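Hi! If you just cloned this repository, the fastest way to understand the data is to look at a raw example. We've pasted two of them here, unedited. The first protein comes first, obviously.
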Amino acid sequence: MIITRTPFRMSFFGGGTDMEEYFKKNNGAVLSTTIDKYCYVNVRHLPPFFDYKTEIAYSKTERVQDINEIEHPAVRNAMKELDMHQIRLTYEADLPARSGLGTSSSFAVGMLNAFYALKGKYVSKKRLADEAINLERELCNESGGWQDQIAASFGGFNRINFSNNGYEVLPIIISPERKEKLNKNLFMFFTGFTRFSSDIQKINNENKNGKEKKEETLKKMYELVDEAEKILTDKNRDLDDFGRLLDYSWKLKKQTGKAVSTSNIDALYERGIKAGALGGKLLGAGGGGFLVFYAQPENHEKLKQELKDLLYIPFEFENEGTKVLYYSPESYDSIMEEK
């Protein structure tokens, strides 16, 4: 049996510039962190006592004889790609799927990590990220960028640069005290709306006439990554500028597609700002999920009180990325010998 734990990510700046069609031409960068909210993937070989060969349990349970019968596209394609047979896979998570925290990519990374571990193989974080990107973007043909898979695999507070040559992960060098202050000034609330990120991406890409305008906006958002990094790493800079920059970035983000925000989300955001938040954003591609705000200490309770009708989710930054929590491999051949 193998159990992997993979964190969800919180992206602050540069979202959208991690789309391959954009960064191959313009370069891109995101500034993000992983948080102590995780998905867990439990994988073991299925004992030979059942009338099905594979069992997959997530929001639904699938029991099939043949891998090609699996409805979940990521599981089906990953099993075929890594030649996995006769397994039982269970997925659990601290937070709901389709909520803007890169949950599907965290699952992809955690699943691949578990499959390799079941085979008795160690693979690098970069390989897991690369294969998760290939799984979601190529094999499953899902729209989206590259940042989620990389963040989930590597973990930590990073700047991720994208170019025609691929990507590089650069940890943000920030003092523990300043990092803790930032963490305490960030507040996350669940809007209650969930959606498929790939669906939102497709809608936001529909307006071909606005492509040039969108690229110009994305270039501005890319430049904000530099400014945000300077705010974090220069101890002489006012950390509150991070919150103000989030507000500016969110206003730019809303210009990149008609499905990024909704009237309900806009109303919730304005309530947060009126309660004293300096800035914030909706996490993920848009349309729903989690809102994050930056607020000064004197406004913390006021912000929570104003948004008390939403679910408040406390969190801490995490640094580990995907990891194997429990490792007790058994070979597929030994399972077959029991028959």
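Ok, and the second one:
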Amino acid sequence: MAKLVEAEWVAARIESDEIILVDPRRPMKYLSGHLPGAINLPVYKIFGADGKLLPTAALADFIGNAGVGGSATPVLYDSPEGQNAAMLAWTLEYLGRTDVLVLDCFYEYWKQQGREVRYRPVHRRTGPFTVHENPAIRATLAEVRDVAGLKLLDLRSPEEFSGERTMGEDTPGHIPGAVNLVWRDFASPPERIIASAEKIDRILTDAGVLRDDRIITYCRSGPRAAVGYLALKELGYDVRLFDGSYAEWSSNGLPAEK
């Protein structure tokens, strides 16, 4: 599972070949300032034109060509609200990396503390990315349909959950039986990428989510749900991500609640 690391830990190793810093933001954000030595692996490119996660082979090619295929430990960071880093962390974990680290503060806070930043692009030697799929952290449409014994967390906005607002051609509403928890409540900008354990535990308790529940997070296409996944995983909850999320549910003509 991905683990959070403090800025001091990263700063002490920033020149080391043991880690590779990965900036998952869009190129314009990356070129506006990034951590020293960081490569750009924009997470929006892991999705196809249909909005779905790319096939495994295509993901491996993209990640390996960016320079993340070697033995160096990937350390991800992000800007608020953390969707990019959370989604890439889950994707790397799904593809078999067990050493993924995520900087626990945002890039802006790193810079605010007077730490060094760079502006020129960094290129690492490309190489193959070896895949060892970890299906245990990924929920499929079939599993979500058979919801018995699972706790579904819908991390979209209340307006999307209720059907007041829709995106694309989605059926208004939410997956039957889901509980709505807004993804932003799991983050803690402008400083920390994940809220405190006390706050998250309180949010989950108030929503009736128990420690021994088998949890699946979803949003519309994955990134918002990935923030919840990262937060719950960090606290030791049994959680998986439904990356197809509500867009896949709706496109298959499945029923929705309002």
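That's it. A detail worth noticing about the second one: Residues 8 and 93 are 24 Å apart (CA to CA).
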